[in-house]
């Protein structure tokens, strides 16, 4: 991912405007806009100011070349507890630094129906068992085991388990949630 896209992604993740970041780093809004569109290259000093305003270290935007491999053995994923969600989520990712994808095993109870939601990022899902009704925008897809779907998370989307058995999904999304 290019530097400007990393900066824009972090700013949007925090829900900040260009003006708010500008005030935090003492750089002009037009200049920040050019940086985000990769039409200007910030100095190290300017990039450090932007990083501080976005609450991250300089290495967030200039990752090192060290590759991180994380292995999570079967049954060792972290069970994530969400009181507000009536389904079970197991994180299949380790805690490696610099990794962008968030893979999860999701178990939807029979007859589960979610609210439509949208957020930054992208989603991929693969139906392992059961069935899933996936609504993305105005389209609805009936997915069976072995079917997969990928879509931008910014499009309103909703899930339904129309069956009387648990539906298991492999879900992979960005940006990383945990």
Task: Tell me what you see in this structure.
This protein is an alpha+beta fold and 178 residues long. The protein folds into two domains: 3-60, lambda repressor-like DNA-binding domains (434 Repressor (Amino-terminal Domain), Orthogonal Bundle); 78-174, Jelly Rolls, CATH 2.60.120.10. The chain is built from four helices and nine strands; from the N terminus they run ααααβββββββββ. The strands form two sheets. The chain has a six-stranded antiparallel β-sheet, with no helix packed on it. Strands 6-5-8 form a three-stranded antiparallel β-sheet, with no helix packed on it. A hairpin with a 2-residue loop joins strand 5 (132-136) and strand 6. The two termini are 20 Å apart. The mean pLDDT is 84.
Sequence-ordered SSE layout with sheet pairings:
Blueprint: H1 3-13, H2 18-25, H3 29-36, H4 44-53, E1 78-80, E2 88-91, E3 102-108, E4 122-129, E5 132-136, E6 139-143, E7 148-152, E8 157-160, E9 167-174
Antiparallel strand pairs: 1-2, 2-3, 3-9, 4-7, 4-9, 5-6, 5-8
Quick rundown:
The protein is built from four helices and nine strands, in the order H-H-H-H-E-E-E-E-E-E-E-E-E. The protein is of the alpha+beta class and 178 residues long. It has two domains: 3-60, 434 Repressor (Amino-terminal Domain), CATH 1.10.260; 78-174, Jelly Rolls (Sandwich).
């Amino acid at each position: 991912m290019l530097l400007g896209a990393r900066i824009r992604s972090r700013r949007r993740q925090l829900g900040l405007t260009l003006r708010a970041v500008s005030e935090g780093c003492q750089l002009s809004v037009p200049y920040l806009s050019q940086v985000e569109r990769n039409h200007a290259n910030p100095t190290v000093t300017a990039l450090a100011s932007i990083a501080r305003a976005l609450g991250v270290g300089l290495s967030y935007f200039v990752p090192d070349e060290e590759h991180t491999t994380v292995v999570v053995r079967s049954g060792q994923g972290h069970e994530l507890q969400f009181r507000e969600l009536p389904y079970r989520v197991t994180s299949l990712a380790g805690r490696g630094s610099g990794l962008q994808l968030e893979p999860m095993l999701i178990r939807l109870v029979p007859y589960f129906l979610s609210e439509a939601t949208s957020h930054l990022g992208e989603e991929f899902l693969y139906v392992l068992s059961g069935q899933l009704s996936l609504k993305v925008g105005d389209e609805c897809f009936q997915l069976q085991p072995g079917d997969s779907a990928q879509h931008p998370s910014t499009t309103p989307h909703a899930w339904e388990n129309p069956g009387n058995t648990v539906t298991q999904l492999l879900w992979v999304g960005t940006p990383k949630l945990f």
